[in-house]
Amino acid sequence: MQVEILNTGTELLLGTTQNTHGGWLGAALRNLGVRVARQVTVADGEPVMEAIKEGVERADILIVTGGLGPTSDDLTREAVAEAMGIELIEDEHALRVIEAFFQKIGKEMAPSNRKQALIPCGAEVLPNPNGTAPGVYVPPRLGKGAPCAVFLLPGPPRELYPMYHAEVPHRVRALADIGESHTMVEMKFTGIGESDFHESLDSRLQAIRGLEVGYCARPSEVDLRLIGEAEVVEEARQLVAEVFPDEMISDDGRSLEKVVVDLLTEKGLLIATAESCTGGAIASRLTDVAGASEVFTHGFVSYSNAAKSQLLGVDEAALEAHGAVSEVVAKAMAEGALQQSGADIAVAVTGIAGPGGGSEEKPVGTVWIGLAVRGREVAAVRAFYPKDRATFKLMVEQRALDMVRKVLVRF
Known about the structure:
This protein is of the alpha/beta class and 411 residues long. It contains 16 helices and 17 strands.
């Protein structure tokens, strides 16, 4: 099916508001087994009229976000009615819901809000418990021209996302004739590159009939997307898991930090971090996960040598003799974090992010990662990521978290 997304809003083109709807809707529809063929963003007002006229003639399903407000530049309803040759009528129930919303928040409804109850005749009103603008579903063949199903969804994410989940998937499935057995699995890997999959798995995956395969590579991570009937996807998932068991972060789309927090929770363990070159980014990733407060105790940011000594008890003589970026200091940082926090596991990183500060012995991109586990010998590994500063930090975070993950899997 030809599925298109039309995002409306001048602020999206001025750069004052980031357009996240296209990516979010694309992923949500992909999970249904439907692919977005085109995404367009237009300014408020007359461009919306033009874009909807084009969209309903070209697409089988058109999803429009924004333009459902009460102001003069909110023209989405009017544009759809005009493009499809359908009369706009005031929906009594929608009006009562809008009035009730204002009563609930203790405000008088402005006359302009009455406009939000205008619905193309024969269309379905999509409830919006999180705002004043109801959504609209216009079934195909309701209007003139080519048959196109149109969804009008509000712009604010806190309104759009709940409405999508409640009102859109079952209608799209029916329109696209997609059975419940169609599924998608997203598997995440670290420590290997896209070429490893091509060399080890591509021919074997291509031999599985009815399977669609896609890759998304980023620094220190490769995501593998498997789409097809449930049995086909499961066959492929098992094959990939057998080939790269140690490198697989998850087979359910969970991020590395989410997997680490889940493993810590499952095993009843606590973690602390000691960071120099990453400046607290590892702790930030862990605490971005809901439930991290149950397993995360301390995040030490010991950027200077003085901080390493004061916060973590790293011996000044060791710093002088070996330098901050060394196996000795990485181990001492991890051990110090473990002792100071009372945690069960501590991970520490110290490196040279650049662009300056490197030497022949320790070039920019060098990092040592220490790992301390209560009751075990402290370990450390050296890695080399000669990248730009931001990419270097991301790759260090990934390696450190993956070291923790591997310890926890075998704990």
